[in-house]
């Protein structure tokens, strides 16, 4: 990993004598990229940003170094990237020439649709065989332990060079190790969203907590002047979490987003507190085993080793990979003795105590957006209880709880930090979260982890699509992808079909569909004290947006394909005996909006709920039983035009039982309805109403078709369908 300076605070590079050794080691551990080591300054430059940039430029000219003091790509790298992008854009334009039959779609500077560009990034994304794990951390750490006499400084991994121009700045504040390598597992996911700078605190450095606080604060203030339009992210791991909170408390007016992994604000309540005095009296010979003991206290070796195990491998292969991963991890443990030698450990324990006292006395002043990542099996700190305390003490603080994880959460393979930031709605490039424009396309790894779930395996869905000439075929090959599509369909109970439709369109057609979901699902105030990753997080990952006319307009304007349910909550929480019944309003606004942007309309029929679950208590039952209204949620009416049955649907907890032998779900994508070139025609309310009724009738007709299909399906029940899946045959 080539390292380049991120601020004027200095550069972290090993001496030239170690270059070849570093390169060979890193090429063995990471085949995707190698570390290129270059000569640079070892001392921090005590000058402002402007003078540092100019002096760095002159220094670069005289020494032919490829490292700049601002952490930006050097000019020749920029030119190469621009040429490559231009060539790719020309190829896409030639390939997607049919994407411009209308000029009303919101295009970027290159006259291309952002929504379709997102899909292109997914189509090009590949899953590599090389998996970054804690092994890479152990192999890279030795090169960060040399004593160059320099102070704490920032570095930016070149592999983390941002893929977007307006990427927010993310500052990583390390834990007790101080190396700044704590994000090594997350570099690839974070570079899609941020410009990443990491703080390195040399092993022999003795800068007090107040000094580190001033260093980070000065960097934040300096960069905030350069990036006034958006937030700066502070990711704090353990000790770094306390440091991030202190910066936020001292600067309550700054736009900061804090991501805290097991913050050390609970250090004085640590389970290991009685053992710390013994460390000072321990002789050096005995102390050499302390890092080994701490390694098993701070993290679960099995979960760390599991990062190298392929998730889709068969059980015997997974067991073999786990064995190999553990065996290769054990020889690297002696490195920990050098990471936290006795003097450094004692110093850091004192600094942790100071950090906890300083931060806890100022929590009341924190006004930043805060997300706490808490581990359930943290043997170092009471992180779960601390997460509850911080949620109460800091306004708007949110929590994501990982009950099986240990203290070193960021080094465990099950966590993807970029995914967590996206799925919680914490990622934004402006002052407020824009669910349409702030969306970052999910990766294939995220897709595989989410869509190949037990729900899909259990329900074994089957999909049909209709061609332009009306022929129905199994699969989704008839779905057009030359321009944005508005999918309009019916809800099954509690929207169980939503993730299946979106996931299958991505799988078969590389087509991202942004779903419109009830705004209640996006309310953060209803989250639990220790909120585990939820279905709402999954919806955000796949690009769901709170439903509104403005949101639909914005999605279409930006060229996104969209999934709309006119029946809304009334259909998703229907009463007993109303299975597969449509509850659509009289309004036909989506027809005129689709015509305005030339979007293709495709009706979707979803069928099979009656063989999957039974509704035990519906809204009518809750209204009849004592205290039943307490189980209902009264919300402001956001569909003010809705009347009658559609409007009569407060939200309530779903009372249902799954079938013991559940059936399959069936989906029919109807014949595409093209609106391109019909804008003036469909602005007429009568004509748009006719098309609206046609779409509704197509959904109803599709339900009848799927009912007949199910009656003739020999694999409609769980056991036969699972046998079919295991055989790999077409279904």
UniProtKB/TrEMBL annotation:
Keyword set includes Acyltransferase: yes
Name of the protein: Serine aminopeptidase S33 domain-containing protein
Similarity remark: Belongs to the diacylglycerol acyltransferase family.
Extent of Low complexity compositional bias: 1-12, 51-62
Residue segments, region Disordered: 1-24, 46-112
One matching Pfam family: DAGAT
PANTHER family: MONOACYLGLYCEROL_DIACYLGLYCEROL O-ACYLTRANSFERASE, TRANSMEMBRANE PROTEIN 68
Keywords assigned by UniProt, alphabetized: Acyltransferase, Transferase
Domain (Serine aminopeptidase S33) ranges: 224-413
SUPFAM superfamilies on file: alpha/beta-Hydrolases
């Amino acid at each position: 990993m080539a390292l380049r300076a991120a601020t004027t605070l200095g550069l972290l590079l090993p001496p030239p004598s170690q270059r070849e050794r570093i390169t060979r080691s890193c090429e063995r551990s990471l085949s995707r990229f190698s570390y290129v080591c270059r000569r640079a300054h070892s001392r921090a430059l005590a000058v402002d940003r402007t003078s540092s940039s100019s002096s760095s430029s002159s220094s670069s000219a005289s020494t032919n170094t490829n490292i700049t003091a601002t952490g930006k790509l050097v000019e020749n790298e920029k030119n190469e990237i621009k040429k490559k992008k231009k060539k790719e854009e020309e190829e896409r334009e030639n390939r997607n020439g049919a994407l411009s039959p209308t000029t009303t779609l919101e295009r970027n500077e290159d006259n291309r649709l952002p929504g379709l560009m997102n899909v292109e990034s997914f189509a090009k994304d590949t899953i590599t065989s090389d998996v970054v794990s804690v092994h890479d951390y152990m192999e890279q750490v030795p090169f960060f332990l040399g004593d160059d006499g320099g102070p704490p400084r920032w570095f930016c991994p070149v592999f983390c060079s941002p893929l977007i121009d307006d990427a927010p700045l993310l500052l990583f504040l390390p834990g007790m190790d101080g190396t700044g390598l704590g994000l090594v597992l997350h570099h690839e996911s974070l570079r899609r969203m941020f410009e990443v700078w990491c703080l390195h605190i040399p092993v022999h450095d003795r800068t007090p907590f107040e000094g580190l606080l001033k260093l980070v604060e000065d960097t934040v203030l300096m960069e905030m002047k350069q990036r006034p339009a958006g937030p700066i992210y502070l990711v704090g791991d353990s000790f770094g979490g306390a440091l991030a909170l202190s910066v936020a408390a001292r600067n309550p007016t700054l736009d900061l987003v804090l991501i805290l992994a097991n913050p050390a604000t609970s250090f004085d309540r640590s389970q290991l507190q009685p053992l710390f005095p013994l460390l000072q009296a321990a002789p050096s010979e005995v102390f050499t085993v302390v890092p080994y003991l701490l390694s098993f206290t701070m993290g679960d070796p099995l979960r760390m080793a599991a990062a190298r195990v392929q998730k889709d491998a068969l059980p015997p292969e997974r067991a073999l990979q786990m064995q190999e991963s553990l065996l290769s991890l054990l020889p690297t443990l002696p490195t920990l003795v050098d990471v936290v030698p006795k003097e450094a450990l004692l110093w850091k324990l004192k600094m942790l105590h100071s950090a906890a006292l300083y931060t806890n006395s100022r929590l009341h002043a924190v006004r930043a957006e805060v997300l706490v990542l808490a581990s359930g099996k943290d043997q170092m700190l009471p992180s779960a209880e601390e997460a509850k305390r911080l949620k109460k003490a800091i306004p708007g603080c949110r929590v994501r709880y990982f009950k099986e994880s240990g203290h070193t959460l960021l080094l465990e393979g099950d966590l993807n930090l970029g995914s967590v930031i996206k799925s919680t709605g914490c990622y934004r490039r402006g002052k407020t979260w824009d669910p349409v424009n702030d969306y970052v396309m999910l990766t294939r790894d995220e897709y595989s982890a989410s869509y190949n779930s037990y729900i899909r395996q259990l329900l074994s869905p089957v999909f049909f699509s209709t061609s332009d000439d009306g022929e129905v075929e199994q699969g989704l090959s008839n779905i057009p992808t030359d321009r944005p599509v508005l999918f309009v369909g019916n809800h099954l109970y509690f929207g169980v079909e939503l993730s299946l439709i979106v996931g299958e369109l991505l799988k078969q057609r590389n087509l991202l569909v942004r779903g419109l979901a009830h705004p209640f699902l996006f309310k953060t105030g209803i989250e639990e004290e220790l909120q585990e990753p939820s279905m709402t997080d999954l919806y955000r990952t796949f690009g769901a947006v709170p439903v509104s006319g403005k949101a639909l307009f914005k999605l279409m304007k930006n060229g996104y394909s969209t999934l709309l349910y006119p029946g809304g909550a009334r259909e998703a929480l229907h009463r007993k005996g109303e299975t597969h019944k449509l509850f659509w309003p009289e309004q036909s606004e989506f027809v005129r909006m689709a015509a305005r942007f030339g979007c293709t309309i495709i009706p979707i029929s979803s069928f099979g709920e009656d063989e999957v679950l039974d509704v035990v208590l519906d809204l009518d039952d809750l209204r009849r039983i004592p205290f039943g209204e307490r189980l209902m949620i009264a919300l402001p009416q956001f569909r003010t035009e809705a009347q009658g049955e559609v409007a009569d649907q407060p939200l309530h907890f779903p009372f249902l039982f799954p079938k013991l032998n559940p059936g399959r779900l069936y989906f029919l994508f109807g014949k595409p309805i093209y609106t391109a070139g019909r804008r003036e025609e469909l602005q007429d309310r009568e004509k748009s109403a006719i098309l609206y009724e046609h779409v509704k009738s197509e959904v109803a007709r599709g339900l009848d078709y799927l009912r007949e299909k199910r009656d003739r399906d020999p694999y409609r029940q769980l056991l036969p369908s699972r046998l079919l899946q295991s055989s790999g045959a077409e279904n």
